[in-house]
Structures are given as structure tokens and as C-alpha cells.
Amino acid sequence: MKLVFVGLGKMGRSILEGVLAAEFLNPEQIGVIDRGPERTRELAALYGIAPLENGDLASAERVLIAVQPKQFPEIAERIAHPQVGYLSIMAGVSTAVLARRLGTRRVVRAMPNLAATIRKSTTALTAPKEAQEVGDLEFAVRLFKTVGDAYTLPERLFDAFTGMAASAPAYLAIVAEALADGGVKMGIPRSEALSFAADVLVATGELMRLKHPAVIKDEVASPGGTTIHGVAALEEGRVRHALVRAVEAATRRGHELGEEE
To answer: DSSP string covering 51-103, please?
Structure first.
């Protein structure tokens, strides 16, 4: 078995669907273990993959752990096999903790975001040299590219990445909702205001691939015009400061989750 999913919630399903859609692996090369035999069989039938039990993991090439971090300590011993490579998408769980609980240094830590559900994720990856030497990290990069972009990062930056890029869809959704609320306040119907906000965020993201954010802001904000008055109101409301603090707070929580392990 090339890859076994342990846990198949929203993110796990998104990754599995990306793998299948890109034909990175065939269904017969993939297995799943979820909570209880019945649920495992249901998911396996849905995707045409193999329903497995913990004992079957010993013959797997790699295992992707897609459970909540708080569930990991109770399942780690049951899924640990020193000859298997492990990929984890559990927030805050370091490679050191993965290696200690699983009994192997063949571990890759990955952090995708919600955009994996539409194959637009920004995923960070890190791994110790043992996992790099046997190709586990290379495999993980190719796997996560089926659901978006994938980058390797030093592990010391992982909590910051989680607090920024992995959490950013929530932050930007709040920004978009607030923009729509402003439009509604000024008389734009709610459905149209939400559509406008979504379109603008997508377009601005594309512009940022070509230009620095400050350049975009300066190009839109003409002297004495409407935009610069709006920008001044944002500065008065300390929007920049609030977003920086959000990243800091989420990063600290990532540290805390790791320390709890």
C-alpha cells in the first residue's frame, strides 16, 4: 500500500480527492483507517480505496495522519511502525514529538490550509534529514502539490506559518464580511456586496503576484480621492495592528499546542 490515511475528515478528504483527481496515486494504492470499522468501510467504499485496520499499517509505505492533535497521543502507539514513513497535518505537533511517539525519524510535518478543499492550498512542509534521505519529504511535496502550492520551511518557522498562512482564510473571511457589511450600510444588497467582496479579494491576490501590496495601494489611492480617505479610516481603526496581533496570537497558540505534547 503506497499511502494510508489515518483519519478522513474535511482536510483528509480534500487531500485524498486531490491525489485521486491528479492521478498521483491510483485508488488501489490507497487505504484508510477512520473511527471504527463501519465508518472506515463507508469511506473506503465512497472513494474506492481499501478499508484497513491498525495491523495493516506495518506493510504500508507511508501513512498520512489527519486526526486532531488531541487524538494523537491515544492512537500513536497503535499506528507506530519503525519501517513506515509518516506525514502529519496536525497543527502544533513537531517532528520531534512525531518521531518520539512513532518510534521513527521518518516523519514529515505538513500544514495545509482550508483552500485545499478547492485545490488552492498554501502548504508548508518540514522533515528531519532521515525523512529527506529516503524520499519522504520529496513524496510529500508532490502529494501536497495536488491540492495547491507546497513549500519547504525550517521547522522554527512552522508555528508562524500556521498563525499566518494556515489561519489566513479565517482572517480574510472576516475582512471580506466586514467589507460587505460596509457595502450593505451604504445601500448595496447583501448578496451583491458579498460577491463584490469575494471578487475583489481574489483579484487583489492575483495582483499581489505581480506587485508589492504598497504599490497596489498607492496606485488605487489618488490624491484627495475616495480611497485615501478609506485608508485613513483603516489606519485610525488600527487594522494593520489587529492583523499582526492575530498572527502573533495564533503563533503563540501553535507553540502551546506543541508544548502540550
So the answer is: E--GGGGGG-SEEEE-S-GGGHHHHHHHH--TTSEEEE--TT--HHHHHHHHT
- 51 CB contacts (<8 Å, ≥6 apart)? 31, 32, 33, 37, 40, 41, 43, 44, 45
Of 253, 234, 242, nearest to 160 by C-alpha is 253
Length of the chain: 261
Number of helices and strands in the chain (H, E): 12, 8
Do residues 25 and 3 lie in contact, with contact meaning Cβ atoms separated by under 8 Å?
A: yes
Q: In the 8-state DSSP scheme, what is residue 84?
A: S
Stated as kind and residue range, the H or E segment containing 113 is none
- CA dist., res. 94 & res. 216, Å (int): 37
Q: What is the pLDDT of residues 115-155, one digit of tens each?
A: 999 999 999 999 999 999 999 999 999 999 999 999 999 99
The cell for 49 is 480505496
pTM, whole model, 2 decimals?
0.87
Alpha carbon 13 to chain centroid, angstroms: 13
CA 122 to CA 120: how far, in whole Å? 7
* pLDDT, tens only, 8-55: 999 999 999 999 999 999 999 999 999 889 999 999 999 999 999 988
Write out the H or E segment, with its range, that includes residue 85: strand 85-88
Q: Are 67 and 6 in contact (CB under 8 A)?
A: yes
